[in-house]
Amino acid sequence: MKFPDLSMSNPVRLRELIRQIRSAKTAAEERAVVQKESAYIRDAFRDEDNTWRCRNVAKLLYISLLGYPAHFGQLECLKLIASTRFTDKRIGYLGAMLLLDERQDIHVLITNSLKNDLNNSNEYVAGLALCALGTICSPEMSRDLGGEVERLMKSSNVYLKKKAILCAVRIIRKVPEQFDVFQNSVRSLLSEKHHGVLLTATTLITEMCQQNTQALQVFRNLVPNLVRILKNLIMAGCSPDHDVSGISDPFLQVHLLRLLRVLSRNDNEASDSMNDILAQVSTNTENSKNVGNAILYETVLTIMDINSESGLRVLAVNILGRFLLNTDKNIRYVALNTLLRVVHADQNAVQRHRATIVECLKDADVSIKRRAMELCFALMNKNNIRTMTDEMLDFLGTCELEFKSDCTSNMFLAMDRFSPTKQWHVDQMIKVLTTAGNSVRDDIVSSLIGIISSTPDLYGYAAHQLYKKMQNDITQQPLVQVASWTLGEFGDLLVNQQPQNEENLRVVEIEIIDILERILNSSLSTVITREYAINALMKLSTRFPNCSDRIQSVMTYYACNMNLELQTRAVEYTSLFTKHNIIRSSIVERMPVLISNQTSNTNSSEPEESIINSKENSPVNGKHEHVPSDEPINLVNILNDPIQTTSGTLNPNHSSSLFNPLEDSLFDFDTPTNPTTKSIPSMTAIDKNGIRMIFTFERDNTTLTINSKITNSTQYSITNFIFKAAVPKTFNIDLYPASSTTIPANNSGDIQQIIKITNPNREKIRMRIKLNYQVNNTNMSDEAELNTFPEQCYN
């Protein structure tokens, strides 16, 4: 005789299941409860238990939220959706939104149920269908049900109208071409008085304009209507029910400002119609509460992103300056971040707040400190380079270790560009090396050596200054490396020339040999530093003939060193003493003056190919590498070559053709004189390993501005992002700094970077790009060759 299964007739309620799981004392107990209940639910589904299906699916959704597998309940959700009971539909649609997505084929089975429920006379059933469609719709479902959603947008029921508009936002994201379906319905929505309808309507129009360039042109004539709505909110108020801290409907104000910014970008007429209302919002909004600060922040972004008046831009920068004085760290961070983005639009206005920005360097919050550091470097120019260098040296001496390498690199780039004299440049860089210690990057060492080498008047002076710094401290490896090279090249000048104002400093040959030998034998010296020292000793063997025997004995000793590199050098140098002594003097003679590419190419009429390496923490990151004119164009090889910072100095006489971060606009706010009115479609530059880079284009005659947007769909944040690009010799490329070197995970944010290409011959554009970055502490690299630029970019 078969007894009935009593356990199936009395399932545990959801509340009881939650209580059992929460009372579990260990993870193992929790897993046991979940596994037992999952087994019961699976058996109930297998036996087609219709009585408790709704309760079982609800419990399964809770189990899914805890991270346990619940995929076996997908079909049961569809059965609940097909039910006529509202309670079943509610749980069914909730399960569909949580357990289904467009990547699973099973989700297409829900299309017919959605269509039926969208036409249901019960507004709550139709609302459930709209919520589900807005969450899980695929491109196919968007095309099939777009007409039904558009019909509900015209409904007199405000509840359905709001949900239909938000559902349309999802459809436009999936299929931007569906803009034609909703175009006529959207215009009438702006005449609605209901807060929710206006809020969702502005969201939908913003999404359409961002996804479809045709929509941007169509809706641009709505700017006067939007200005009127915003003015009514400020002057009369929309509804007392939506006032927050005395400000009328701040959420709608923010959405209106955002939409106006999208519609008025690069449009003089639309920008002019907004100037008055933006001035009113800026002056009449109370900034004592976060609500007002949010509106002011959107106002600032709008002012700086459209072709606004210069006075309005100054007002926007002053608002950000007030933000810097706020006690809230988040507001200060937002202010610094925004100033960093707009500093190129109106540098003089930002300079007025320089003292406040410098004070932010002393903030305890590392995020604020980093943004303040980056902004300080962006504010440097030839007029304030001395003052700002002193401020940054003070910061370098007190900042955390993680800031030192970025700070030293940026200080070198700024001084390389704006230093008043070479002697001042060398003095300050020695201070930087002394202050930063071992946190200096290797490229700074080689760059400083290049500066000293290219300035013959400073040979003796640099040797004296570096020798003084190295006398009492040989632990700072970058400083010791530069000093060793300088002593090896110009040690004779250190002995023979008496520096001005330093009468007590007398150096003899044996002292120089002693300190180099001490560096070579020190356990604190790195292998690279010892290589510099052994080379310097070899150089001095001809400059100091009296010390030649001692130097030879040092080389003989190191010929048996355990380090292969040092041993090899010592063996070769020993052979110069013994077997090739005749040519030793010519081999170790003084190096010729290093001439940068910029200088050597001033007399050349050959077109050159440029490659630029960009890093977020450097306000002046553009360094040009040139391919010799007698070599064929090979973009792959160019990208593999390292960037030589010693040969990439910027020539102030040619600043119009090179990147000037303090004069050019980061977002290209100024309207070009003869803009090309053609609409250029966007382009996916690379979509690989979770990184997606989208190019959008703006063209002014022979100059193409590429706005790149990089997103990260992986579960890990991408750090140390570096972008390289190369073009053929007939083009000129300028790469602006990226907005950041960190790309947030799961598409939760992006970084932006601007590339400008000059194409005088209007040739088809070819570009080779390379991305270097770190994911989960793993170094990664991606390359791509771009040959499919839209024809409007060059014709």
From TrEMBL:
Membrane topology: Peripheral membrane protein
Record-stated family: Belongs to the adaptor complexes large subunit family.
Keyword Protein biosynthesis among record annotations: no
Sequence segments annotated as region (Disordered): 598-627
GO cellular component terms, A-Z: AP-1 adaptor complex
Main location: membrane
Protein's name in the database: AP-1 complex subunit gamma
GO biological process: intracellular protein transport; vesicle-mediated transport
Keyword Oxidoreductase carried by entry: no
Domain GAE: 678-790
Residue ranges, compositional bias (Low complexity): 598-619
Organism: Adineta steineri
SUPFAM superfamilies: ARM repeat (SSF48371), Clathrin adaptor appendage domain (SSF49348)
Compartments where found: Cytoplasmic vesicle membrane; Endomembrane system; Golgi apparatus
Keywords, comma-separated and alphabetical: Cytoplasmic vesicle, Golgi apparatus, Membrane, Protein transport, Transport
Matching SMART domains: Alpha_adaptinC2
